[in-house]
Amino acid sequence: MRSPAHPTEQHGAPPRPVRRSLRSVLVLAATAALAVAAPTAVASTQSPDKPAAPAAHAPATATPAAAGAKAPAIAAKPYMGWSSWSMQSSKYPGLNPDGDYSYLTEANVLKQTDALAAKLKPFGYDHVNIDAGWWRDNTWKPEFDQYGRQTPDPVRFPHGMKSVADHIHAKGLKAGIYLPAGLEKEGYADGKAPIWGTTDCTTADIVYPDLRTTNGWDSAYKLDFSRPCAEKYIDSQAQMFADWGYDFLKLDGVGPGSFKTGDNYDNVPDVAAWQRAIAATGRSIHLELSWSLDIGHAADWKKYSNGWRIDTDVECYCNTLVSWENSINDRWNDAPAWSHEAGPGGWNDLDSLDVGSGEMDGITQAERQSYMTLWAINKSPLYTGDDLTKLDDYGVSLLTNREVIGVDQSDAPVARPVTPVGDQQVWASRNKDGSYTVALFNLGTSPASVTAHWAALGFTGNAAVRDLWRKQNVGTHKDAITETLPAHGSRLFTVRPGAHLATTGYEAESAANTLTGNASVAGCDTCSGAKKVGNLYQGGALRFNDVTVKKDGIYTVNVHYVSGDPRSVTVFSNGGHGTSLPFASTGDWNTTDTVGVQLALKKGTNTITFDSGDGYAPDIDRIDVPRDV
Fold first, then answer.
1. Angle at which helices 160-170 and 106-119 pack, to 10 degrees?
2. Edge-to-edge, what's the strand order for the sheet holding 183-184?
3. What is the rounded CA–CA span in Å between residue 43 and residue 410?
């Protein structure tokens, strides 16, 4: 979800449309009103979770740990569980009877905890994550303790957050909680609130004097980490969560990201401070970042956190939990750029997996299967936002398929598209045992055939295929597998390869090739030969000459390319007209990936051309052409 200040997450960075929930309008007004009434933000001292005030001479409780220190057990694999946000944000009848986002209550969290333990814990789902609003009432008015820290709303959580965590732990599960980045405006308290664990710090000492704002909703004042008191404030929040027994923190509205850029929205120092503060508590707490994080700071997210949302909210803020067109289908475009960033200790987060109840989820069975398939092959955390007390049989079959869960939890790399990313796509990754995980997707609105050619994976001949959704072997397939898929449908296979495919490589920078327009040779550390051909734009073209094969046929030509963003290029052989093919982003301009393109070649010598037309094409490293078909 977004943040408690503006739960709606779609904040219109072009070309995405702006989407705002009703709650965002109400919250904007409430936030503005509360920000000018800071003294009312200090809550009663009767909250069950308020720690005793430290003695006036007490030292700060947390000593910053070494930057980058991380408990090795945290996020060794993508986490699995349940999150409250999808039901909080939905207009589905009966979910939020006391107003928008009112679903979040102690009673509902405990009900979902018990259902998770009974139904999904045996399959690895072990997190219960409480999202935005736990410190706000149903009008979104917040509760803060005398130290400027969020404290539970006594109506939503009458027994406090520690009691909830204790119940979650008693079920053998892990407890998660949520905060937005920065010092929330309502917690500023006219700059007079003391910082817990210090003798001379107040909220005036932790932010910039001009009260500049930060996070995805500008709902908080930006912390100034050149002032030591700012770090002490984060220390105090982390210690509070550790004392309550929480195992997971979602830090939301983090920038650069959340559709915000610039110095005010650079929350890398916040994330680093949270990492140090968590380490200093001595408690293992998973730190997850949200939302639409800037890939240009991937190294920072990997250094200081255990996971990062790569995209907008998956929820539709409508009368179901999600919709296919809202943002589920965006992930096929946006996930490839992040594929090289995930691994043990930190994972790409595609958001909630709402596939458990067809009526409430609001999508077809085919869409539900494709949704979970994409999450699994990307090794996204698998946390559902469904009502676990009302899962349908098909939803249970999806969420509890051990073979598909195994793909998500395996030590294989994140999958990537191995064909151009049109409506029909093939994604794959190579497993440690030499087999391949292969997913077929039809993202079109009508049934279509999708083919995975073994040559795109580097092998040929017969291969044994197992269908993971059907949990059965489907025989030996020669050179390829083709399936007719429904609209938005998918299949997921394990493929055990046949013989290695012999190819001939042709370097893009070869003097035998022809460059036209702006096309030019450039250095590339990760490219074969340490060079590539770039500047393929507005008429720039690269023609490979003297491509030789032994006989006429349709060949899978593997194109090694570099592209910091999604781009298209027209590819054709021997003077044909060709087709404009969309290539997924490789994440940056020095990382190579490969897609297989089907081209007709004739016996003897051929040409293969990459033409940018009037657009911008990816850089080309080399092509590998099978020696035979």
1. 10
2. 183-184, 220-221, 213-214
3. 46
DSSP string, 108-175: HHHHHHHHHHHHTGGGT--EEE--TTTTB-TT--B-B-TTS-B---TTT-TTHHHHHHHHHHHTT-EE
54 residue type, one letter: P
Longest C-alpha distance within the chain, in Å? 87
pLDDT of 308: 98
What are the angstrom distances between the C-alpha of 475 and each of 17, 131, 374, 495? Answer: 45, 45, 24, 10
Looking at the DSSP bridge assignments, the partners of residue 483 are 450
Q: Residue 118: CB partners within 8 Å, gap ≥ 6?
A: none
For residue 124, the cross-strand partners are none
- Percent helix, strand, coil in the chain, to 5, is 25, 30, 45
Q: How many other CB atoms are there within 10 angstroms of residue 167's CB atom?
A: 18
CB 533 within 8 A of CB 519: yes
Burial of residue 484 (CB within 10 Å: 0-12, 13-18, 19+) is exposed
The distance from CA 170 to its chain's CA centroid, rounded to whole angstroms, is 30
Q: Are 41 and 34 in contact (CB under 8 A)?
A: yes
DSSP H or E stretch at residue 495? strand 489-496
Which residues partner with 503 through β-bridges? Answer: 626
Pairing type for strands 174-180 and 382-384 reads unpaired
- In sign, the C-alpha dihedral spanning 365, 366, 371, 373 is positive
Q: Are 555 and 598 within 8 A, CB to CB?
A: yes
Residue 358: partners with Cβ closer than 8 Å, 6 or more residues away = 364, 365, 368, 392, 394, 395
Tokens for 39, please give them: 């003294």
How open is the CA angle 37-38-42, to the nearest 5 degrees? Answer: 120
Cβ-based neighbours of 610, under 8 Å, separated by 6 or more: 536, 541, 542, 543, 559, 569, 570, 571, 617, 620
* Res 69: pLDDT: 45
Query: Encoding tokens for residue 629?
Result: 């078909």
Average pLDDT per 10 consecutive residues for the chain, totaling 629 residues: 40 32 36 35 41 37 38 86 98 96 98 98 98 97 98 98 98 98 98 97 98 98 98 98 98 97 98 98 98 98 98 97 96 98 98 97 98 98 98 98 98 98 98 98 98 97 98 98 98 96 97 97 96 97 97 97 98 92 97 98 98 97 93
Pull the structure tokens for residue 107. 């009673």
Backbone angles phi, psi at 161, to 5 degrees: -80, -30
Alpha carbon distance 467, 407 (integer Å) = 12
Closest CA to 177 of 34, 360, 1, 356: 1
Sequence length of the chain is 629
**Threshold 0.85, pTM exceeds:** yes
Measured CA distances, 40 to 44, 129, 207 (Å): 10, 28, 20
Domains of the chain, CATH where assigned:
22-44+91-313 (3.20.20.70), 416-500 (2.60.40.1180), 503-626 (2.60.120.260)
- Write down the pLDDT at residue 577: 84
The answer to whether the Cα torsion of 627, 574, 451, 533 is positive or negative is positive
